[in-house]
Amino acid sequence: MTHLYEQLKAYEGRAAATSGVGKDLVNEPMIRHWCEAMGDTSPAYEGPQATAPPTMLQAWTMGGLSGHTDRSGAYDELFGLLDGAGYTSVVATDCEQEYLRPLRVGDRVTYDAVIESVSERKTTKLGTGHFVTTRMDVRADGELAGTHRFRILKYAPAAAKPKGNRPRPVINRDNAGFWDGVAEHKLLIQRCEGCRSLRFPWLPGCNECGSQEWDTVESSGAGTVYSYVVMHHPPFPAFDPPYAVGLIELAEGVRMVSNVVGVPPDKVRIGMPVELEFLRVDKELELPVFSALPGGEG
User: How far is the CA of 176 from the CAs of 24, 173, 256, in angstroms?
Assistant: First the structure.
């Protein structure tokens, strides 16, 4: 056992908060806001006789923006020790809750917290550090209502890996024509020769009539953002987060998934007009992406 770990272990069992008091009584407005956010319509959570959803257990102990004054110095000392050893980053990893009795409107919530455990040094994808678990005993009018365990990782970020190549698209007999078009800077859409409906992505047969005969039409490249997500934590070193992935509705009526470029990811909006361009991502690979048109960002 290293000297640092011996120091960290000494904090196990020490109080993180003592005789804490919730800033609000269990109340209808907070329950309503929670249920609206979660989409929970149970009648048990409505009216003056309502109980609070069990998963709100921790909510009644939170200090809000102004914080709490009841946290002990042990927690700050532990974090200072980890910071001094280079474990300067923190991420919440998981929580466990045990429910012993429902919280009811009007209950006064009190709590005590203890530093339950500090792990040995662990190596994760984020970096190397120590897991710290805090246990909080939550009481309602003095009666134990539940237990909340919250675990964080204090870590030193891993060194950035050299940027690699993008994963290669899988090209087969069913979609080879699409990639041949990309090589010629054309975005080709399949068209059924039986019912003349367009389809994307490429398929061996028509979803509408079942015909296996088809030809292609070239997209104009005009489209709009039908939906999108902003990616922050991809598992591949070839990607540079954050970046936007959009579901693009083409002017021809079909939709395709691709990157939205030309604006910061947080400026992408549903309905934003975009146009096709071809982006070379490495020496061997070029991809169709969509660039936001001037004035279309939110």
Answer: 63, 5, 17
